[in-house]
């Protein structure tokens, strides 16, 4: 799961777009996108302007340059412990001149001054996750509930941890665009060391097998729809507690689009990212709400829009083989 700067486009359009339905009422606002990863280097900060709903969004044209950006590590009493100045590397993208990593369980504050706009936001980085026991080196598809990953429990008395699970196929077979009976379809290109689709994804993507019994021709491009899978937000309470401070995560087979080596990421979200991911799902049609009832994407930035959030993650790997 890529969490760095992946939200800025959705934020700039979805958060600002609803307010801009009538152009006479629209006022552009600065949109922030930055996510800290526990134990990972301090992230880039992206700044842009929100766009009216019906405008074509050009991130380069709407980048906000010339801003003053800092990220501050806060002490337990809320006072500054260390301030990290950021510098602009390209228009709208700012980097910290440090090798310091975001510390689990610590609170960071973002401050931005962009023209007349002053923005601020805070996040407390989730506790670090440790991989106690990886999944089996080889997993036979359909055996049990799915690959099992044992990790340390991260929920606290103050907050129940929320996770997103993502998967990535590491050696998927390539697909090329072809024309069949006047329609665009996608044909697999068999190659040694590359692996084909799982059967549910074959059906979901409208795939047919050619006479050789191996080559697939699909209605939708598997390269865009099956290599990466991401779950909804799931509370840690939904996992299996083992009574020793660890929990067992069973990753369902429907999360895997391809056989072969696969990467599994378990990502614990802070409240800001949790709220954003859930509201983004609703924006994308993942609910029964009618268009007039859909709320704006959630923002935790004062003085502007966007998300300054944090996460912790652990990565495991298995090889998925056909039964």
Helical run tally: 4
Instruction: Report the count of strand segments.
Output: 21
What is the strand content? 35-45%
Mean pLDDT: 87
User: How many domains make up the coordinates?
Assistant: 3
Description:
This protein has 323 residues and is mostly beta strands. The protein is 10% helix and 40% strand. The chain has helices at 8-17, 199-204, 222-225, 271-283; strands at 30-37, 45-49, 68-74, 80-90, 93-96, 107-114, 117-124, 131-133, 138-140, 148-152, 162-169, 174-180, 183-189, 208-209, 216-218, 228-230, 234-235, 240-241, 246-250, 260-269, 305-321. The strands form 3 sheets. Strands 1, 2, 3, 4, 5, 6, 7, 9, 11, 16, 17, 20 and 21 form a 13-stranded mixed β-sheet that branches. It has a 4-stranded antiparallel β-sheet with strand order 8-10-19-18, with no helix packed on it. Strand 3 (68-74) and strand 4 (80-90) form a beta hairpin. The model is unreliable at 1-22 and 282-295 (pLDDT under 50).
Give me some keywords for this one:
323 residues, mainly beta, 3 domains, 4-stranded antiparallel sheet, 4 helices, globular
Write the layout of secondary structure elements.
Blueprint lengths: L7 H10 L12 E8 L7 E5 L18 E7 L5 E11 L2 E4 L10 E8 L2 E8 L6 E3 L4 E3 L7 E5 L9 E8 L4 E7 L2 E7 L9 H6 L3 E2 L6 E3 L3 H4 L2 E3 L3 E2 L4 E2 L4 E5 L9 E10 L1 H13 L21 E17 L2
Parallel strand pairs: 1-21, 9-21
Antiparallel strand pairs: 1-2, 2-5, 3-4, 3-6, 4-5, 6-7, 8-10, 10-19, 11-16, 11-17, 11-20, 12-13, 13-15, 14-15, 18-19, 20-21
